[in-house]
Amino acid sequence: MTSTTKLFRPAVTALAAASLVSFSSCTPYQAQGAGVGALAGGAIGALAGDDRGDVLKGAALGAAAGAGAAALKEQHDKKKESQKPSRPKTSRHHPTGYKTQDPFQIISPFKPNNLIDISKNPKTGQPFASGDYAKDPSNGQIFRIP
């Protein structure tokens, strides 16, 4: 048997072991870690060892190490994500302003009930439309255009 064949058979066996281990992992990320670890371990076993058993042992150890490392990274990422400050919950309900005779002015629903110019939306340059949100400049509160 040639040296290429000696390395090819264990490599195929290691690849089969890696795929078996990767399918039994919990998440796709862990499966990827197990597969990469098994291939690396099998390659090290083939280079450092002298028989097929060394390749399989290397693949098994590499798969376990790869899946374990991936699981630890996932756990770290989840913990880091849970420590991020959450956005404050905002109410979807905003009061509606009051119409005036001038279509480009409304009365704010918030005290002191200022007269608000809605002739130009600063974001679009167009007049505010019915249902749009506006901010009362005197107190910063949001309301809907009637």
Characterise the protein shown here.
Helix 1 (3-23) packs antiparallel against helix 2 (28-48), helix 1 packs parallel to helix 3 (52-82) and helix 2 packs antiparallel against helix 3. The protein starts with a helix and ends with a strand. It has two domains: 3-82, no CATH class; 91-146, no CATH class. It contains three helices and five strands; from the N terminus they run H-H-H-E-E-E-E-E. A hairpin with a 7-residue loop joins strand 2 and strand 3. The chain has a three-stranded antiparallel β-sheet with strand order 1-2-3, with no helix packed on it. A two-stranded antiparallel ribbon has the order 4-5. The chain has helices at 3-23, 28-48, 52-82, and strands spanning 98-99, 105-107, 115-117, 133-135, 142-144. It is rod-shaped and about 95 Å long. With 146 residues, the protein is mostly helical.
| Principal-axis shape | rod-shaped
- Class inferred from helices and paired strands: mainly alpha
Summed up, the helix count is 3
The main pleated sheet reads as: 3 strands, antiparallel
Binned, the helix content reads: 40-55%
Mean pLDDT value: 76
Please give the alpha-carbon distance between the first and last residues. Answer: 87 Å
Number of strands: 5
